[in-house]
Design goal:
Largest sheet: 6 strands, parallel
Low-confidence stretches: 4-18, 251-260
Mean pLDDT: 89
Radius of gyration: 19 Å
Number of helices: 7
Distance between the termini: 43 Å
Number of strands: 6
């Protein structure tokens, strides 16, 4: 069964704050590759490869649940500060993934996107990413956005610069306009953000978009985050109530009051 054929889902109504059983957009901070490798006396590069190999089964699992968008935090703007050997290995793994996975994902109806900067990546990888996006742009299955050389503060800074450069008057600036200048323009905000390896930090990830997301943290390292863990995360999400600042929760939208 193709990934595209698993796309059916129940749309969320606007009259009730009880979440749909399935989030439309899941974003994941994939953490724990290094610790996973250390516990097995392997190199950090081995851990990153194991984490990359895990993406395909997780993608299939979320698609089977009916998730429509999956954003994966693969490389942050701060990751450039890691040892050069590790940075080079991460870039090499990205190149391998593009070469080996794009065609198959396309055949399965997956649409690929990139959020973050491209200009600091090697030209060959830039072209590979652009070609993958172009090849899959018409696909109707799950959309997978790879956050590579991504940082939330950098994204907002670039958005503000672009707004100023475009000569937008201050009176014209609102949340909707800002959203159009973000890397994620055209994508819905994440409903659920998952972080593996037991960490409780946002780590500069989707700072604007995650304002009303539900968070889920697990002690499981990313390479071990399997279909059972996906089921647990989806089940936990299904138990949440999203108030968006409201008290009665019957009207979706944002309010000035604090959740309570």
């Amino acid at each position: 069964m193709s990934l595209a054929s698993n796309a059916e889902r129940v749309e969320k109504g606007h009259e009730d704050a009880v979440v749909s059983a399935v989030p439309t957009h899941v974003a994941i901070i994939m953490d724990g590759n290094g610790r996973w490798a250390a516990e097995r006396s392997l190199s950090r590069t081995d851990g990153h490869r194991a984490g990359t190999e895990n993406i395909r089964r997780i993608l299939k699992s979320f698609a089977a649940h009916g998730v429509r968008y999956l954003t994966l935090y693969a490389f942050s703007t701060e990751n450039w500060e890691r040892p050069m050997e590790e940075v080079n290995a991460l870039i090499e793994i990205l190149q391998e993934m593009i070469c080996e996975e794009t065609r198959q994902l396309h055949e399965e109806g997956v649409r690929l996107l990139h959020i973050g900067r491209l200009d600091r990546l090697p030209s060959g990888i830039q072209k590979g990413i652009e070609d993958a996006i172009d090849l899959t742009k018409g696909n109707a299955g799950i959309t997978v956005a790879l956050a590579y050389d991504y940082g939330g503060r950098s994204e907002l800074t670039n958005a503000i610069r672009s707004i100023v450069a475009d000569g937008v008057r201050s009176s014209q600036i609102d949340e909707q306009l800002i959203g159009k200048y973000l890397y994620t323009a055209g994508m819905p905000d994440p409903d659920l953000i998952i972080r593996t390896a037991g960490e409780m930090r946002i780590s500069n990830f989707l700072l604007w978009q995650a304002a009303y997301a539900e968070y889920y943290s697990t002690d499981v390292y990313w390479p071990d985050f399997d279909e059972t863990e996906v089921d647990k995360a989806i089940a936990a999400y299904g138990q949440r109530r999203r108030k968006y600042g409201r008290v009665d929760g019957r009207v979706e939208g944002r309010a000035d009051s604090i959740d309570g």
